[in-house]
Design goal:
The protein has 1 helix and 2 strands. With about 60 residues, the chain is mainly alpha-helical. A hairpin with a 6-residue loop joins strand 1 and strand 2. It is rod-shaped and about 70 Å long.
Length: about 60
């Protein structure tokens, strides 16, 4: 079987499965956590504004109840 590069470290390894993209499970978890952190960071400003608006609506709805 041919060698492929680990997506996180760039180290070449021989995969044991045809769909394996990482040398170790730890590398896969770290890679996915980094991607999720980048996605949350990119959305943070918009999410903060939406959360503020949601809280305002919740307060005004409770005030009229």
């Amino acid at each position: 079987m041919e060698k492929i590069k680990d997506l996180l470290t760039g180290v070449e390894f021989t995969p044991t499965r045809s769909d394996q993209r990482f040398a170790t499970r730890e590398n896969q978890i770290r890679y996915n956590n980094l991607k999720a952190r980048q996605k949350r960071s990119a959305k943070a400003e918009i999410d903060r504004a939406l959360d503020t608006n949601r809280n305002i609506l919740r307060r005004t709805r409770c005030a009229f109840s």
